[in-house]
Amino acid sequence: MIRKLLFVLIFLFLVSITGCTIVQPWERERLADPNMIFDENPIQKGIKEHYINIREGSEGGNGSQGGGCGCG
Amino acid sequence: MDKKILVFLIFFIPFVAYSQTEPADEIEFDINTYFDNFRLNVYYPYLNVTKNLGNNTTINGSYLVDAISSASMKMIFRVDGITSATNNKTGGSDNTPDELRHQLSLGITKIFSEISVSANGMYSIEHDYSSKTFAANLSIPFAKKNTILQLGYAGNWDKVFPQVRTWTKDRNTTTINLGLTQILSKNIISQLDFSFINMDGYMLDGYQVIRIINGSSFRVLEPVEPDKRVRKSVGLRTNIGISKNSSLQLGYRYYWDTWDIKSNTIDVEFKTHLSTMVNMTLGLRQYFQTKAYFFKSEYLTPEPFMGVDSKLNSGYTNDVSIGFTFKGDKSINFPLLSSDKFTLITNFGFYHRHTDSPDWIMRLSDLYAYLFTLGFKFSI
Q1: Residue A65: predicted pLDDT
Q2: Which residues 7-66 in chain A show a CB within 8 A of chain B?
Q3: CA-to-CA distance for A48 and B371, rounded, in angstroms?
């Protein structure tokens, strides 16, 4: 059930990508805000992942730094 | 097939990339602390220096120390004849660390046209464990940078040499990451991430023990875990700009592996600018996990595979955090904060883990941990 739900989510995500319009660089003021960047502080993210990985049985799938205005 | 992918990544992607913009020249120093009700205290200062060399090349180096004080380890080792051979003469309930881990890493990032590539090497050493890591990644933008494809590789070569044993055993880990970051609108961005992790070798730490209870007597044995593990996970997260000053990040991850552990993770992060100088981040994370197929809370007879580590048990965790960053400004009449190159970092976190049966060593089902971070960034 969960796996099916996941595939539906991924499918919706991919569909949304193909359907979305291009956001031009001059339209990315909001996206350029540091709050819009995934893992703005990778050091803090790494420290958090370290203590969580020691205490839980799962690992990976947490993404990478990036996002924001699309130039970062 | 795996070998072909590895060869490609090693020879054609010699660097790690996280973004198309060059990292800023800065020094970051943090003091992180961890305290829990299992009487484990960890202090880890962390220093990171990033320097732009020009010509689209940036290098960075970092140094971390883990100072671990574990009253629980000392207490158990005193009463357990098998594991009491540790060399630690101090620690536990006093203020002397039981164990120190040193970690040094060096990295380089280079941007070729719009493609960002980097590489990182890391070495970590403690009295009973060492680890070497090489990580590489490639980040390629498409569609006027509306789409970014990320490819990553990491290799870990670890050695386990517990003080209570006479042997040294290896553990090798290969990690492949695929990521896709997509701008969906002027204020929404999403990221899809897939991880594949292949582990080979000795998976234990050499200190855990299993008691086989038979009536009034018992035997103490070492746990036995499979020497192979393949772990996969898919994560999807979306960052939504909900107002001029605030954003909301929603994330979900599904994980599964060959030890039959499956997990679901949901996390939410709210970030807002309280003023031009102060930023606040609120985080909430929920995690649910099934147990490994060979995990049992009690063993009545020896079995081919036996595990007692709580992270192999079924259960759930809750994690909440709040953090503030204070950016310096010339209008502030306070040491350091009067510099606009200075940023103060603070964070407080609370972590609760519940397992469906008590932990093997402390005999508790609930772990409560408190985490503090105090640090700063300084632009150079």
Answers
A1: 66
A2: 9-10, 13, 16-17, 20, 22-25, 27-28, 30-31, 33-38, 41-44, 47-48, 51-52, 54-66
A3: 9
